[in-house]
């Protein structure tokens, strides 16, 4: 009886245990089947996955292959596959690698159809990719949300234009829990192309009548090749004006040569308006193969010399008349389209500077404060101001007014310095010298020139010294800002009692190049880069808007605004009036199509977190599907346990074992 009672209790426990397991089996099966649906609801706090799709829409994604497909097309297709395999409750957002067009940024949302439609509308921009900025943005979003699992997918070919692996990423940026990092396989196919990295016109001002000499219509074009083998080949370089006029040049590349600098004749439109807009291109596959520039067209150069007229008995001897020497150097022949006008500095008014290109101050000591204001404003508006110490003065108190009104950090001596013995002149090593074009001929032209008197000056760090005396004293100094005019100072007066310069061949090219080179520097347009926020450029733009020739406009006051296309932009003031022209060009390095090694890319990304290369099949792992596999595993375990316990707890088996035990224990 005791054995029977013990057996009964044991059978009851076995039946309860089997009942619990058999009840759990359909419950777990139902949860496994319903989990993808439940993950799309708010029944669980951590119910859905957040997918961040980073798509390369930069310039590097716009190059078509032989089949007409672009990298962006492939990135879009991969993104659509990921969305198709996502759970209904997953939240998906899209971040473009190029921030030029903010409309392509898609906030995280559960409306998958809206995300799909937005991805299909994405287009390549002419701006650069910015992987560090985008990863930092994603990191901020993820760190502020600890209730979801996050999946970050970076879709790019990792060309050098999309992100250079020699520029390190922020360490540990995405090294967080509940985050899955994936990236597409880097491209491995070499692409050969020629990019235009820069264009430098030798002169930004051309004279229509008698002044369109070769220097005014030439430019230096800087080229760079992409590719692995760099074979010997030929590139056709074109310069195209806004009306379609074209000049071409064949560039022959030697094997292995990657960079080149060539000169190109520009198709100036003499009959057009005041500006000739020109596009230089080495191809038309991507925007990095093109560059834009402007050449200003004028009928004549107008120069005002501020000096007192001395007639009759007051007239100076020819050798001491600095104004006369300057006029001869400015216009050595009547055919040269240069107009010269003398103005007495005492009676000068602002109207004297209307339609004037350059002002030469031979008597700065006679200018009053209002006169200095007018001269400073003239320079600020893009004019050339050339200051020369008065030849009949030994004490120079006027320099304080010049420093103040011209806003320069220079230091002048108060008196003229006599050089005994006389000193010769040497070329100062300066990249931005106004005499750069005649740099080869300068040593020979300087040889016979000596200086007897000089006004010593110590220019500021922004100044450029083109000529010095043998002892190192600056003689010809310029200070300029792009689009804001040029200040040029000649430390000796062009009189024979100061220097032998007026009587030597150097005089004409020195004055001519000071005039044209100074105008070239002061008139240079402000250059901006497509895709870079306007406030990051070094300029003085504060208000108004920039308007492209196709009608597109951008507000300067918007801190996030940037130019989205290259070409000529007109700066319009708040009142709608147009003033300065601004040239915008793409960042040529953003179009670098050289590929980077997969191992190096993996090591580069590893600094930010644990990245994995995407497989060909889009991953379907997510909180819903992960829990499904867990529940199915539990279900399989329950079924196995139920089978074993059913066999073990079978009443017939138990009864036979009990009977055998009783028989074996009988006395």
How would you portray this structure in words?
With 667 residues, this protein is an alpha/beta fold. The chain has 5 domains: 2-41 and 626-664; 49-186 and 597-620, 3-Layer(aba) Sandwich (Rossmann fold), CATH 3.40.50; 193-298, Immunoglobulin-like (Sandwich), CATH 2.60.40; 301-522, Rossmann fold; 539-585, no CATH class. Helix content is 26%, strand content 26%. The chain contains 12 helices and 30 strands. It has a 9-stranded mixed β-sheet, sandwiched between helices. Strands 3-2-1-4-5-30 form a 6-stranded mixed β-sheet, sandwiched between helices. Helix 2 (71-84) links the parallel strand 1 and strand 2. Helix 1 (2-38) packs antiparallel against helix 11, helix 5 packs across helix 9 (507-522) and helix 6 (369-380) packs across helix 7 (399-406). Residues 40-46, 617-624 and 654-667 have low confidence and may be disordered.
Briefly say what this structure is.
This protein has 667 residues and is α/β, with parallel strands linked by helices.
């Amino acid at each position: 009886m005791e054995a029977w009672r013990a057996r009964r209790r044991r059978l009851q426990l076995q039946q309860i245990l089997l009942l619990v397991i058999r009840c759990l089996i359909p419950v777990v099966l139902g949860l496994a089947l319903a989990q993808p649906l439940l993950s799309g609801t708010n029944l669980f706090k951590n119910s859905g996955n957040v997918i961040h799709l980073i798509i390369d829409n930069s310039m590097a994604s716009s190059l078509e292959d032989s089949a007409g497909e672009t990298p962006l097309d492939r990135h879009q297709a991969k993104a659509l596959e990921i969305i198709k395999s996502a759970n209904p409750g997953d939240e998906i957002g899209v971040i473009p690698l190029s921030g030029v067009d903010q409309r392509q940024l898609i906030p995280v949302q559960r409306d998958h159809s809206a995300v799909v439609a937005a991805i299909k509308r994405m287009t390549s921009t002419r701006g650069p990719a910015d992987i560090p900025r985008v990863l930092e943005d994603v990191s901020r979003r993820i760190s502020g949300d600890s209730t979801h699992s996050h999946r970050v997918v970076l879709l790019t070919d990792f060309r050098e234009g999309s992100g250079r692996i020699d520029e390190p990423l922020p360490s540990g940026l995405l090294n967080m829990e509940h985050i899955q990092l994936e990236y597409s396989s880097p491209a491995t196919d070499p692409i050969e192309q020629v990019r235009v990295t820069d264009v430098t016109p030798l002169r930004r001002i051309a004279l229509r009548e008698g002044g369109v000499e070769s220097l005014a219509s030439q430019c230096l074009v800087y080229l760079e090749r992409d590719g692995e083998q760099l074979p010997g080949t030929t590139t056709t370089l074109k310069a195209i004006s806004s009306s379609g006029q074209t000049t071409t040049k064949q560039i022959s590349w030697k094997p292995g040569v990657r960079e080149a600098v060539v000169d190109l004749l520009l198709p100036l439109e003499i009959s057009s308006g005041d500006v000739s807009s020109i596009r230089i291109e080495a191809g038309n596959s991507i925007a990095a193969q093109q560059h834009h520039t402007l050449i200003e067209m004028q009928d004549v150069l107008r120069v005002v010399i501020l000096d007192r007229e001395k007639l009759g008995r007051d007239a100076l001897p020819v050798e001491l008349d600095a104004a006369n020497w300057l006029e001869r150097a400015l216009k050595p022949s009547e055919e040269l389209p240069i107009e010269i006008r003398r103005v007495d500095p005492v009676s000068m008014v602002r109207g004297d500077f209307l339609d004037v290109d350059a002002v030469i101050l031979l008597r700065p000591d006679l200018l009053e404060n209002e006169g200095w204001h007018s001269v400073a404003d003239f320079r600020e508006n893009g004019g050339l101001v050339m200051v020369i110490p008065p030849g009949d003065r030994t004490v120079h108190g006027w320099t304080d007014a010049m420093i103040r009104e011209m806003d320069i950090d220079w230091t002048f001596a108060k008196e003229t310095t006599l050089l005994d013995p006389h000193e010769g002149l040497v070329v100062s090593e300066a990249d931005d010298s106004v005499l750069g074009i005649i740099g080869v001929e300068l040593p020979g032209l300087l040889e016979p020139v000596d200086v007897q008197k000089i006004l010593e000056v110590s220019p500021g760090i922004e100044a450029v010294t083109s000529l010095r005396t043998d002892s190192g004293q600056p003689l010809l100094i310029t200070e300029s800002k792009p689009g804001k005019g040029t200040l040029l100072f000649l430390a000796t007066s062009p009189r024979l009692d100061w220097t032998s310069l007026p009587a030597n061949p150097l005089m004409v090219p020195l004055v001519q190049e000071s005039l044209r080179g100074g105008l070239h520097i002061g008139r240079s347009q402000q250059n901006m880069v497509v895709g870079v926020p306007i406030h990051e450029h070094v300029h003085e733009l504060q208000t108004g808007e920039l308007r492209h020739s196709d009608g597109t406009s951008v507000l300067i006051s918007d801190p996030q605004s940037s130019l989205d296309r290259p070409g000529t932009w007109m700066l319009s003031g708040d009142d709608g009036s147009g003033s300065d022209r601004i040239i915008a060009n793409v960042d040529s390095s953003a179009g670098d199509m050289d590929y980077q090694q997969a191992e190096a890319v993996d090591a580069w990304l590893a600094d930010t977190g644990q990245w994995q290369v995407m497989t060909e099949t889009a991953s379907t792992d997510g909180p819903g599907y992960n829990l499904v596999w867990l529940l199915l595993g539990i279900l399989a375990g329950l079924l196995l346990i139920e089978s074993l316990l059913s066999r073990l707890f079978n009443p017939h088996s138990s009864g036979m074992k009990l009977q055998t035990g009783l028989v074996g224990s009988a006395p």
